[in-house]
Amino acid sequence: MIDKISTLGGYIHEYQKSVENPEAFWSRIAESFFWRKKWDKVLDWNFSEPRINWFVNGKMNITENIFERHLFTRGNQPAIIWEPNDPKDENRVLTYSELFEEVQKFANVLLELGIKKGDRIAIYMPMIPELAIAMLGCARIGAIHSIVFAGFSSNSLADRIKDAEAKLVITSDGGYRGNKTIPIKDIVDEAVATCPTIEKVIVVQRTNTKIAFNDKIDLWWHECMANAEEVNQAELMDAEDNLFILYTSGSTDKPKGIVHTCGGYMVYSAYTFKNVFQYSDGDIYFCSADIGWITGHSYIVYGPLLNGATTMMFEGIPTYPDAGRYWDIVNKYEVAQFYTAPTAIRSLMSMGQEYVENKDLSSLKVLGTVGEPINEEAWHWYHDHVGKNRCPIVDTWWQTETGGISISPIAGIIPTKPGFATLPQPGIQPIIVDGEGKELSGKSVEGNLCIKYPWPGMLRTIWGDHERFKKTYFSTFDNLYFSGDGVKRDEDGYYRILGRVDDVINVSGHRMGTAEVENAINEHPLVNESAVVGFPHDIKGQGIYAFVVCGELSTGGAEGIKTSIRKGVTKIIGPIAKPDKILLVKGLPKTRSGKIMRRILRKIAQGDFDNFGDISTLLDTSVVEEIINGALEDV
Ligand code: PRX
């Protein structure tokens, strides 16, 4: 088992060791896992190719480290506690033995269907236990899972299936979210119709709604499982074999398939989980993310289960049946660690104290946030009203690419400061550089956040496009991993994340590429062109502001066109990409070389109509005036 860091001195000592001799450090951590063959070399790397190999020639399977390693001691302990959307429905508790049996059976189902190590499997499911069983079943046989958040549209799902050339989709008939029923299978059907690589679709029954069942490719999960063998021998995986792909938005149009591998991701997700949350045996841990995002991968499924923890899975939403739902769950299960996004905190905060005030939250020991900067007001509300001034808040900075928490307090050990992710986790060597790549050393500096040395949980490539991997992360600054975030290091040496410095907007903690949204808007037949920027939003952190140039207006006029643009974006990407504000304009501010000056649009979106800086390169300055007038009228 991984030893926890238990004092500030211990953290400083571990951190120093991890920097002085990273290989010895990670080798010691990795030794607490079960390897079928030990590695020959801890690390082989360079950031210029880039090539990153951890635990070279080590052989293992991540599911053996979840199940076989824990069965003797934890067979009857709950592994997953599932809380349904409707609190009146029955919950499900899967012990380590029960979960193991399901995973083995599902692994055998996959093998029966001819799925082999290395094949890609798309998973598009609501938050039900079968989602975790499906992903672990894939990992058991060495198939690469690619989970697509079930809020994405059929187009987005199809793009991801095509990019990964997935053979199989695992899904459900429908899903519940609050008082809505989502037609999950219909969305999958629409996607699969355009994806020739898909051979079969496995469907879990959840809502029992009527679906179009195509006998040629559709299979019922329960029927497959009823006949499945109960025992499955895990596939032998190399530490550097792929474990999963997870798509994320970048500054160009096409989402990137971030690739994580077995050995390094295992060691890193497990190590950070145990330390950051200070998990102790018997604690009930609850992360409210969706497994469709990296937070759910690392801190609902892999990190907790690798530590033999009890992890909650919640199907519903924070406001159903009312805005006290999270606190009811904390109370019902006596949750010790609770991990959520600032956007959820802000939204619950805006609904009033009464939902939290009368709940017994005395079981809580640690609170966490992730995904976006947390403003001080929300931090204090979380600290005072949820944590009752007794629980440390871990503001965890990391990314789909980093695989696990990278800069964060260790709960109760590294003193916190509102708005600061504080200090790097052992093994993470942050460096701040200016626009030219020059290191800004010392304290009280601000610049681009890079990492200068590999860590086991980092991405290894972009699926099918190693060149793009190199260009996106290792070419902006020589020999450094560039995160895309701006950061400030204060006089205490603490890190405060300032947000993205590229064309990515962080909406409710979810990454949205502006180019992606623009392309979706431009699909509208009346739209000539568009430019999308972020603007400060009280609940979402950042909202999406679209400046749109239309040839002519349709019969519905301006409002009609805005509605149809929003519908179009929802259809093409999903509801999370729907612009909060749309301003119809005659032209966009462009330079003589045709580049859109987003800087001006960002200012206007923020409601700042002066201080545009140097606009002498603009082709037509009257465009700016026209946009400002439109924006003023729109307020
Ligand atoms: O901008 C940073 C922001 O979220 C981005 C990563 O998004 P994603 O890959 O979707 O992963 C989110 C969950 C790990 C980062 O580049 N971000 C993440 N955590 C924080 C944050 N910004 C400020 N503070 C954080 N704690």
UniProtKB/TrEMBL annotation:
Q: Which SUPFAM superfamilies did the record assign?
A: Acetyl-CoA synthetase-like
Question: Which molecular function term from Gene Ontology is one that the record holds?
Answer: acetate-CoA ligase activity
Domain AMP-dependent synthetase/ligase, which positions? 67-455
Please state every residue range assigned to the domain named AMP-binding enzyme C-terminal. 516-595
Q: What is its EC number?
A: 6.2.1.1
Q: Pfam families recorded for this chain?
A: ACAS_N (PF16177), AMP-binding (PF00501), AMP-binding_C (PF13193)
**Which InterPro entries does this chain map to?**
Ac_CoA_lig (IPR011904), ACAS_N (IPR032387), AMP-bd_C (IPR025110), AMP-bd_C_sf (IPR045851), AMP-dep_synth/lig_dom (IPR000873), ANL_N_sf (IPR042099)
Give the top-level enzyme category: ligase
The superkingdom listed in its UniProt entry is: Bacteria
Does the record carry Nucleotide-binding as a key word? yes
Task: Locate the coiled-coil region(s) and give their ranges.
Answer: none
Gene3D superfamilies from the xrefs?
3.30.300.30, N-terminal domain of ligase-like
Per UniProt, residues of the Acetyl-coenzyme A synthetase N-terminal domain are 13-65
Keyword entries, A-Z: Acetylation, ATP-binding, Ligase, Nucleotide-binding
Family listed: Belongs to the ATP-dependent AMP-binding enzyme family.
List, alphabetically, the NCBIfam families matched.
Ac_CoA_lig_AcsA (TIGR02188), PRK00174.1 (NF001208)
What is this protein's record name?
Acetate--CoA ligase
Q: What organism does the UniProt record list as the source? A: Paralabilibaculum antarcticum
